[in-house]
Amino acid sequence: DGGITQSPKYLFRKEGQNVTLSCEQNLNHDAMYWYRQDPGQGLRLIYYSQIVNDFQKGDIAEGYSVSREKKESFPLTVTSAQKNPTAFYLCASSHRGNYEQYFGPGTRLTVT
Amino acid sequence: DQQVKQNSPSLSVQEGRISILNCDYTNSMFDYFLWYKKYPAEGPTFLISISSIKDKNEDGRFTVFLNKSAKHLSLHIVPSQPGDSAVYFCAARPLTQGGSEKLVFGKGMKLTVNP
Question: Quick check: A95 pLDDT over 80?
Fold first, then answer.
């Protein structure tokens, strides 16, 4: 059963701590993406990666970091430099050259 | 500067009637437009798409219309069903060198279909 998994579904952290969100896909997709959703804001692109060991900043990359060491995995680290980290985070993937992106179930991060 | 706009935050329709969701864009260099449906606390799911060289694409109850001169697209759902109640996102792919698959999303519109 192919798909994208994100874990955990809910994550709570204290302010000042870094936290890493997991994203794994078994769809054999080359490209992977991280989005953030806030109420009334839609989906905003944080980082994306078109191939292993390469990634680019999206529209709101400040305070975040990523790695792409394996095709299947694209973890996102929310650093303490991110001023408003509380949000719903979505991971997606797609075949290269294909516009349709498949989304994971999301992780809701709450930082207090 | 928002390139993809969904100006109405919500829409409420009766079951069986037509739902029309609108989307406007400002960038002429989009080559594909997509609609995604999202339930609360879940990831969006792909619904239907249209190439910029077409003006209509139909899939069952869902039809997307593209008016390039007006930079406007719309999603029609006929007949609407209570299970269609969700947030709908309009998205567009910029035509860029290198074939990037980046998408630009609108803010979403909440559709409620009343039984």
Answer: yes
| Cα–Cα dist A59/A34, whole Å | 11
Written as one letter, the residue type at A52 is V
- Residue A11: HSE in the Cβ half-sphere, 13 Å Cα cutoff: 23
Whether the pLDDT of residue A55 is over 90: the answer is yes
Interface check B47 vs A, CB under 8 A: no
Count of C-beta atoms within a 10 Å radius of residue B14: 12
From B70's Cα to the closest Cα of chain A, the distance in A is 23
Rounded to whole angstroms, how far apart are CA atoms A29 and A25? 8
Q: Strand, coil or helix: what is A23?
A: strand
Distance from CA of B32 to the nearest CA of A (A): 7
- The answer to whether B110 and B38 have CB atoms below 8 angstroms apart is no
